[in-house]
TrEMBL record:
PANTHER family: UPF0754 MEMBRANE PROTEIN YHEB (PTHR35791:SF1). The keyword Chaperone does not apply. Keywords: Membrane, Transmembrane, Transmembrane helix. The chain crosses the membrane at residues 20-40, 196-219, 225-245, 415-437. The keyword Membrane applies. It comes from Acinetobacter brisouii CIP 110357. It comes from the Bacteria. This is DUF445 domain-containing protein.
Length: 438
């Protein structure tokens, strides 16, 4: 056996193209690694379309994720976010009573200026000439009723949030408005899987390169170099993406273990151990990390996607804003329709102007309410209240539900990435043929 292998080696080394044949393995590994890196970048970048248009035909490229932000975010919402919980649960977990208190403090602080501003717009001469004692009583009445009114308002908005806010529409609109957020979310959640695809591609390239080297050794036809390079390009991208999500469920196998990886991937990375039987989980790289990903995804969602600011913004300015205004109007009227305030303002302004005044007050109340809920610190405090709920529920997702946190980013136009691998492989194989074999 040894003599046969030695004979083959001697035959191989006497071939004039033996160095070119040996170069197939490292070249295939490098080209595979490079084109997979390029394909991964093209999933997320550029954020904005890069290129030009010939009529209505775009000539150029935009990252798959930012280009299809609306569709991808809709899939994630339908397949995952709606299974984690409802908006009413999220708002309830944010502590509506405390929210009402914080909003009340802000509105209470601005209340007198708010009343003055609106009245001066409506009838400045009249308001400036009303005795200060009457104005003072109006202020005091509003201050007195405000805390209870806001508490009831926030409670009712929380109770009706499902009819006031469409979570899918809210998420899709936010992602389409801020495509960088979409890319940032996917990169935070799946950075390890992206690195895995990139690095495993070089190993896959080595295996394919060995096969191609044997093919050339047996059948030294020039066309086989670009042909097989193209095939490897197709297969590498497909295999690498497949390995991220498959197998979906864990499959444990036992094997003789002589080494172990060091903690935190510290040098020397692998150290010897007393021989023993180890257990290895054959499962998709992303699927293995459900517990770790739960922390990352919950943090991104609660701090940047489903926040008090986004929920309230959609509630106040979204497609169901008129229904929200009716609820706000009911509660604001509790202050405006007290005998003192109603009588004073109706006599001063007249019925028509009094009705317009209430409309203005509702608009300004909504604007002032959005000030505290837009505060980053206040949003961060609400995010902490729902983070654990988000994290625990993501951990409880089934593997099929869990994969939808990242899978849509690659599933959309995945064929483009696979075809791209074949095209770049063919180009690289052709260059290698001319450089090394001709």
């Amino acid at each position: 056996m040894f003599e046969f292998i030695s004979h083959l080696w001697q035959v191989f080394m006497h071939r004039p193209d033996h160095w070119a044949i040996i170069s197939i393995i490292p070249v295939t590994a490098f080209v595979t690694w490079a084109h997979v890196w390029m394909a991964l970048k093209m999933v997320f970048y550029p954020i904005q379309f890069w290129g030009f248009h010939v009529g209505n035909l775009p000539i150029g490229w935009q990252g798959i994720v930012p280009r299809k932000a609306g569709r991808i975010s809709g899939i994630i919402t339908d397949n995952t976010l709606t299974k984690i919980g409802s908006l009413s649960e999220f708002l309830e977990a944010m502590d509506p009573e405390e929210m009402a208190k914080v909003i009340g403090e802000q509105v209470n602080h601005e209340l007198e200026n708010l009343i003055d501003e609106i009245m001066l717009e409506r009838n400045p001469v009249l308001w400036e000439n009303i005795p200060y004692s009457i104005r003072r009583r109006i202020y005091e009445q509003a201050h007195k009723q405000l805390p209870a009114v806001l508490e009831h308002l926030v409670t009712e908005l929380t109770y009706n949030v499902e009819s006031l806010v469409d979570m899918r529409e809210m998420v899709v609109r936010q992602m389409e408005a801020d495509r960088k957020l979409m890319v940032r979310m996917f990169l935070k959640v799946g950075q390890k899987e992206i690195n895995f695809i990139w690095h495993i591609s070089a190993l896959i390239g080595c295996v394919f390169g060995l096969f191609q080297m044997i093919v050339w050794f047996l059948v030294p036809w020039h066309w086989t170099v670009p042909f097989w390079a193209s095939i490897w390009g197709f297969l590498t991208n497909w295999i690498a993406i497949w390995m991220v999500f498959n197998p979906m469920y864990p499959h444990y196998v036992r094997y003789p273990q002589f080494f172990r990886r060091t903690h935190n991937h510290q040098f020397p990375w692998i150290v010897p151990v007393i021989p023993r039987i180890g257990t290895y989980n054959i499962q998709g790289a992303f699927m293995k990390r459900q517990e770790e990903v739960s922390d990352v995804f919950a943090k991104v969602v609660t701090e940047e996607l489903i926040t008090l600011k986004t929920i309230m913004g959609e509630m106040m300015y979204g497609h169901h804003k008129e229904k929200t205004r009716r609820i706000v109007k009911q509660h604001v009227n509790q202050i405006m329709d007290t005998p003192l305030v109603r009588t004073t303002l109706q006599l001063s302004l007249g019925l028509r102007e009094y009705a317009k005044l209430k409309t203005d007050l509702i608009d300004r109340s909504i604007e002032i309410t959005m000030v505290p809920v837009s505060d980053p610190a206040f949003n961060a405090s609400r995010a902490r209240k729902i983070f654990q709920m988000f994290r625990d529920r993501i951990r409880e997702l089934t593997p099929n539900e869990f994969q939808n946190l990242l899978r849509p980013a690659f599933k959309e136009d995945e064929w483009i990435l696979i075809v791209l691998g074949g095209v770049t492989g063919f180009i690289a194989g052709t260059i290698h043929l001319f450089v090394a074999f001709l």
